[in-house]
Amino acid sequence: MKIGILSKRTGFFTEKLKDYFENKGHNVKVYTKENLCINKTLLENDLYVMKSKDQIPFVYAGYYAEVNGIPVIPNTEISYKHKNRLEAHLLIKNAGLLSPPYYYGTIESLKNNLKDKDFPLILKPINSSGSVGIKIINSINEIDEICAEANEILYLENFINGTHYIVYFIGTEICTLEKVPLENEHSEMTKVDTSEDIKTLIFKWKSKYNLLFGHLDIVKETDSGTLYIVDSGTFPQFVNWKCEGDPVSKIANLILKKYEDLKSKL
Amino acid sequence: MVKIGIITDKFHLEHKISEFLKYLKTKAKVTIYIEESHILNNYNLKFEEDLFFVKGKGKIIIALARLIENETRIPVINSPRAILLTMNRFLNSTLLQKAGIKIPDFSFIPYRYSPPFEDFIVKNIIDQKKYKFRPIIKKNNGHITVFDERAINEVDSEKENYRYFYYQKFIKSKWEYKVYGFGEDLFFYKQIPILVNPNKMETRKRIDEIEELKEISLKAMKIIDLKAASLDFLKSKSGEYFLTDVNSLPNFNYIENGPKKFADFLISQAKK
Questions:
Q1: In chain B, what are the domains?
Q2: Sheet holding B120-123, edge to edge
Q3: Equal CATH topology for A2-76 and A84-98+161-243
Q4: What residues have CB less than 8 Å from A168, skipping those under 6 apart?
Q5: Per-residue burial over B105-118, b = 16 or more CB atoms within 10 Å of its CB, e = otherwise
Q6: What per-residue confidence (pLDDT) applies to B26?
Q7: How far is B2 from chain A (nearest CA, A)?
Q8: Which residues in chain B touch residue A112, judged by CB atoms under 8 angstroms apart?
């Protein structure tokens, strides 16, 4: 089978995934922003793996492949919606789960409408997951300090005071790690037992969107014990997978099995 | 009285919809949401409108429309999906071509790659901002190449994290055909192509309905989920119509009694 991997990078998880597929006898090509041409040449592959979710070019490529009948795993729409924070909130809400309140507006309108009691807030880039570009804003005055252009549009999210977790899931396996608030996937984390409420949340999320693997960043609020999803991802690097087995082979096998299932339905 | 919400920005409010609003306010209770002063909050979503009309393509405009669509049963014209598809040329080209609508061949490739066609036009990738089409035209050995200045700016911009060009094969045509659609009501015009005469209104004239264009326009609007649209066509030497552009924000001021016709159309679409 010919497999295309849509990825920002050729190393790390992508390289391992490529090696695994090739060892299974498949032909694999990695498409990055340097070599990805979206036209009929893409139709030569049987399957695409959407490792990276930048709208241009990866979501475009996934969309092109799917419209032309080539499966993309994880699928293009769910990948796009995970990447866009506003869409991710809707995914969370539509799954019957909770996300923190957010505000989205121009700097001027935010300054005119927010009150001191609304802070602290977390500034997050609208189209990203993880912790890149994330900053805490403690007061209205700080908004001006961090933003150069007055007509810029900002996404600000309520800071939930509680215990922060990153929860990986691959198939039915869940791996929960406690982390320092706002740190990224690559920071040091401590593996903890997965509580029943987190397990229930993960299975609800997985089954609602038919996900094979992924991760959620979850905060358990200190006062109420309520779980909030603060970030979601369809394809993390799994660098902190501290549970049993190798995530690369598990994920590769899930993708191959999903492809066979899809093919048998055609 | 029917309640209509208008989601727009200062530019459209000041320059594009004043006559429309003047008429609409005699027929409906109108609330205006302006991008520059509105804050979205996912826990504050109470709307009493019977319909929302989206006049703009800004990020907050689309996000508000998307929230309303997800949280209520209030009709939104045009839907956020339709706006996003029309804004992203590559996506609507892909969808329309697959549905069998004739559009010029296209390719989406890194900007350093050689052009895939001998005669082509490079268009901007995301048609979201308000500045206008400014073509850079070159003719060489019987071939024509056109670059939209916005496409070059997109590639050069440090704000964008992509370096791509959207190529569309160039179709030589004596006339450019424009179809406005409000639901199933279509209005047909033709003009000298904008690359020949940039003042499009100077040569624009109303024409009789062309059955083929009607069929393609209604099909394209249905595929993209557009209730209001303007569609551009070119006619090749062999007589085939090619759909070259789809716009979710038709300028109804260009149609005779357009603001009134469009307002009446919107009211007819309101939640019953």
A1: 2-77 (3.40.50.20), 105-169 (no CATH), 173-258 (3.30.470.20)
A2: B106-110, B164-169, B120-123, B143-148, B135-140
A3: no
A4: A174, A175, A176, A177, A213, A214, A215, A236, A238, A240, A241, A243, A247
A5: bbbbbbeeeeebbe
A6: 97
A7: 28
A8: 37
Is B107 part of the contact surface with chain A (CB cutoff 8 Å)? yes
Query: Across A98-147, where does the E strand assignment appear?
Result: 102-106, 121-123, 135-137
Tell me if A153 and B60 make a contact (CB, 8 A cut-off).
yes
What superfamily does domain A84-98+161-243 belong to in CATH?
A: ATP-grasp fold, B domain (3.30.470.20)
Q: Which residue has the tokens 């507006």?
A: A105
Tens of pLDDT, residues A108-158: 899 999 998 999 999 998 886 666 678 889 998 888 877 765 558 999 999
Mean pLDDT calculated for residue range A193-212: 98
ipTM of the complex: 0.93
Distance from CA of A98 to the nearest CA of B (A): 11
A251: closest CA of chain B, how far (Å): 28
**Residue B64, pLDDT score:** 97
pTM of the model: 0.94
- B161 contacts in A (CB within 8 Å)? 54, 56
Tens digit of pLDDT for each residue in B121-149? 999 999 877 667 889 999 999 999 999 99
- The CATH architecture annotation of domain A2-76 reads 3-Layer(aba) Sandwich (3.40)
Locate the chain A residue with the closest alpha carbon to B109: A37
Q: Using CB atoms and an 8 Å cut-off, which of residues 155-174 of chain B contact chain A?
A: 160-164
